[in-house]
Amino acid sequence: MWRPTADLAVLAAIISSLRNKALPRDWVLFGEVGLTGEIRPVQAGEERIRDASKHGFSHAIVPAANAPRKPLKGMKVTAVKHLSEVISALREAAI
């Protein structure tokens, strides 16, 4: 069964593969991607970010609606609304 939560991570993996650059191991991505490229929120998004931080991830790319209300220590969160913003974030990270 497909999990829409993984849409964003799968697309980022495809982009990194096409560019022959690996995603950093300490990054986490989640979100549902619509047919027009919009990034939709997922259930328990803030909890997912907190858990990722506890497990050593240092950067999260997440739907804007799932962005934490308060900053998390040691975790950079990039909140996105459209796939083009994800591509820009990956480009800035040289991916």
From TrEMBL:
Highest taxon above the source species: Bacteria
Any Gene Ontology biological process: recombinational repair
Family matches, as Gene3D superfamilies: 3.30.230.10
Annotated Gene Ontology cellular component terms: cytosol
Protein name: DNA repair protein RadA
Provenance organism: Methylophaga thiooxydans DMS010
Source species taxonomy: Bacteria, Pseudomonadati, Pseudomonadota, Gammaproteobacteria, Thiotrichales
